[in-house]
Design a protein that fits this description.
This protein folds into two domains: about 80 residues, no CATH class; about 190 residues, Exo-inulinase, domain 1 (Jelly Rolls). It is built from four helices and 17 strands. β1 and β2 form a beta hairpin. The termini are far apart.
Length: about 375
């Protein structure tokens, strides 16, 4: 052991003897020539501390603070060669990868068929006549002056009564027909005669009316049973009937009307255009056109009746009570109207062929 010299200005108890480097570490240091620091620092900067610690096993000397390698000389030389070979690989691993551009998808637009909003139309050829549009014919032609107005303020012109079957009353500018829950027909004719050709209108209003309960106009009445009846049903239909002694016939069967509500209260303006009669036009008879709220409904012909009275009526089926109110009756004349010719049957007379004369021989004289 070497003897330590005691310095006069230092305390011996506080000085620790320096460690002598191992002979092997000293030989490694001389062989490497102090380049182990540069190699390790370079390896630290390129490959990181984790891999450097795995390759190097440093031993710090307390006194000198230098790093010594415990590996033999041939290991250090091999380490240096491996470092020169694999250091570029570290640089490759640390290099920034090249990013290639992504192909942008291309959208191919397929053209659609062109919509022809205004297609070409045929050009009219000069000289070719176009079809002539005729105006809608007037269904109430030749209307003349007002012949009669009735505000139902006077009950004298009308037939009224009150019984268990029903009641007919004229009051407050209207005539009211009422029937309890029984099957019945109430008719009220107005006194006085009307000409053969006239147009009549009357306002109707129902308060109790259901199903096939019906009401309407009476015309061409002879004061008895013979008459025509225009029926308006409470479910929205129209019908025209002919009544004679021991006969009731249908001139026009039930037809639906868009002007008549099928349920609930009804308020209508009934109109009848009437030309001709059995006496004035025996072949054609009466030509009748029906209107509801000034809208034409249908036309009919009948050659049998020629009465001159008008009236009102109510028919109840008996399932429910029925009440109908009539008001504002107006009659106008029809002037200068030429009736439509009514086709008649043509009789074909067949003449038999004349027989050729024959010669009858006379008997010889005796």
């Amino acid at each position: 052991m070497r003897q330590l010299k005691v310095l006069p200005h230092l305390d011996r108890s506080k000085i620790s003897p320096p460690l002598r480097p191992a002979p092997r570490a000293a030989r490694c240091r001389r062989a490497v020539g102090g380049r182990e620091k540069d190699i390790k620092a370079h390896f630290f900067s390129l490959c990181g501390q984790k891999w450097a610690k795995k390759i190097f096993s440093p031993a710090l000397e307390r006194g000198g603070g230098e790093i010594f390698l415990r590996w033999p000389r041939w290991a250090l030389i091999l380490l240096a060669v491996l470092a020169l070979v694999f250091l570029p690989a570290c640089e490759v691993l640390l290099a920034t990868p090249e990013i290639f551009p992504t192909d942008t998808p291309t959208i191919t637009i397929t053209p659609s068929a062109t919509i022809r909003w205004f297609p070409a139309t045929a050009t009219p050829t000069p000289g070719v006549p176009r079809p002539q549009l005729l105006p809608t014919p007037d269904q109430r032609p030749a209307l003349g002056e007002v012949l009669l107005t009735d505000s139902f303020s006077d009950p004298a012109p009308w037939q009224t009564f009150d019984s268990a079957v029903g009641t007919i009353r004229v009051s407050k500018g209207q005539i009211t027909f009422s029937v309890p829950e029984i099957s019945a027909n109430l008719i009220s004719l107005r006194r006085g005669a009307l000409p053969d050709d006239f147009y009549i209108e009357v306002t109707t209003s129902t308060s109790l009316c259901r199903g096939k309960d019906a009401y309407g106009l009476v015309f061409r009445s002879d004061g008895g049973v013979g008459q025509y009846r225009l029926l308006v049903s409470c479910d929205g239909y129209l019908r025209l009937e002919r009544w004679r002694a021991a006969e009731a016939a249908v001139v026009q069967d039930w037809l639906p009307s868009g002007q008549i509500p099928g349920a609930g209260p009804q308020m209508l303006r009934l109109g009848l255009w009437l030309v001709g009669s059995a006496s004035s036009s025996p072949q054609g008879g009466s030509e009748m056109r029906i209107f509801v709220n000034d809208v034409f409904q249908f036309a009919a012909r009948d050659p049998l009746l020629s009465g001159q009275q008008v009236g009102l009526f109510l028919r109840s089926t008996g399932a429910n009570a029925a009440t109908v109110i009539f008001s504002d009756l107006v009659v106008r004349s029809i002037r200068g109207y030429v009736p439509t010719p009514y086709p008649s049957a043509t009789l074909a007379i067949t003449i038999p062929a004349t027989r050729a004369p024959t010669l009858t021989p006379s008997p010889p004289p005796k």
